[in-house]
Amino acid sequence: MPLWDGRFSEGPDALVLRLSESISYDRRLYPFDIQGSMAHATMLAKQGIIPQEDADKILKGLEQVKGELDRGEFVFKTELEDIHMNIESRLTALIGAAGARLHTGRSRNDQIATDERLYLRHVIDMIRGEVQDFQKALWKLGNDNSDAIMPGFTHLQHAQPVLFAHHLLAYVEMLERDCERLADCRHRINRLPLGAGALAGCTLPLNREFVAEQLGFEGVLQNSMDAVADRDGSIEFLSDLALISMHLSRFAEDVAIWFSQEFAFVEIGDAFTTGSSLMPQKKNPDMAELTRGKTGRVYGALMSLLTTLKGLPLTYNRDLQEDKEGLFDAIDTVSLVLRTLTAMLATVKPRPKRMAEAASDPSLMATDLAEALVKQGVPFREAHHQVGRFVGACTARGITLAEADLPLMKESIPTAVPEFLQIFDAAHSTSARNLTGGTAPAQVKAQLARWKAKFNE
Ligand code: ARG
Q1: Would you call 429 a catalytic residue per the annotation?
Q2: By C-alpha distance, which of 153, 152, 226 is closest to 192?
Q3: Which residues are CB-contacts of 203 (< 8 A; sequence separation ≥ 6)?
Q4: CB 41, CB 35: distance < 8 Å
Q5: Are 106 and 197 in contact (CB under 8 A)?
Q6: Is residue 3's pLDDT more than 80?
């Protein structure tokens, strides 16, 4: 029989157990459930609500239960529904009557809310570390190849030359904002629900501030109904994971493109590519594709939890139990993808010659030519028009912009001077973009140094 069987004359139907159990997945919360129970029991004794010797037995018993769980010896029982009752039941079997005092002044509603906040705090720190490892891998690839120039793209069309490292550092920036969002979300999550009871608080003289301090929370939640009813911390964290996944997915798409035969900008180590069961020659960037593909399930977890919450009246409803599986799956997915991409990056070898070839197309420097005219005092719209005419004239003759001579250039650009013929050089072009945030080697080197210092903080 369940621990709440007092008023019932028969046990739950087998189907009821199947639908209501959460122990098959909430077992991962056990270290946090035990941590919360230890702080709670310590507080109950300190406040004189339970005898100190019972609290001592509870603490010792919980240690023992934790040992069994750590070693994989613990026997989970589906009929005990969830992690809370599995642990409490085992504790009581171990220490007898004292175990029955642990749940004093507590409900599973404030208990699960506390477990989840402790768990999320832990997981946020883990994901932040993994994002930082990935940032460092991006940085290293850029730093090791800081001279490589490639075409930058808009509309997936050659646009202007950029440094390969500049492209990689764009992702480092995006991921840094992701880290900031995680840190911010952690503060809001880091508040104690315990003491809220089922929904209305508790008649016993609990000391919530003491429990909060013991558990390293930054404060106690100020409304007991809010404390048991909301899961906005999980939703916020899932939206952070969704953004991280979106960034990783875009990076994966870049890698898949760079790895294609048409681009051939990078080589990826054999350990991080896969073959075809049919075509013997194939070497596929499946890790990049799976990174892209896994993004959908992370978005799905976010949508699922938003939907679960939207119609719930205050306060606790059993629907809230559905907050876990999607959340856990999203965490496992993002963590695995991050670790895989970090390891894969260490095997990525850029092919700077291929990149340089692609970036050597003189038309990538058409904007540079228009800006040279602006320096002469020509209004930009007029400069744009003149250069456009020049591009058209070259195309009509089947030559590149760099192959044109001054007289031909002058037909479209009356003020053209011999120096304009030197503009069609990718290295010249990148060096000239020497503003903060630009792709000039001096700027990119400064950014690489800034990130290096930041990683060592
Ligand atoms: N397993 C439950 C959950 O995850 C714990 C809280 C159950 N509370 C209740 N009154 N049935 O939400």
Answers
A1: no
A2: 226
A3: none
A4: no
A5: yes
A6: no
Residue 375's H or E segment, with its range, is helix 366-375
Q: Which residue has the tokens 């939907």?
A: 307
Mutate-to-test residue for ligand 1 from 109, 117, 119, 234, highest number of ligand atoms within 8 A of CB: 109
pLDDT of residue 278: 83
CA–CA separation, 454 and 424 (whole Å): 36
Q: Contact at 8 Å (CB) between 361 and 158? A: yes
pLDDT confidence of 1, banded at 50, 70, 90? Answer: low
Question: Which helix (H) or strand (E) is 149 found in, with range?
Answer: strand 149-154
The residue assigned the tokens 């990049």 is 288
Whether the pTM exceeds 0.85: the reply is yes
Out of 122, 260, 276, 428, pick the active-site residue. Answer: 276
Whole-number pLDDT of residue 418 = 96
Is 254 touching ligand 1 by the criterion CB < 6 Å? no
Q: How many Å apart are CA 10 and CA 17, to the nearest integer?
A: 13
The CA–CA distances, whole Å, from 413 to 20, 344, 379, 380 equal 77, 49, 13, 13
- What size, in residues, is the chain? 457
Q: Is 40 a catalytic residue?
A: no
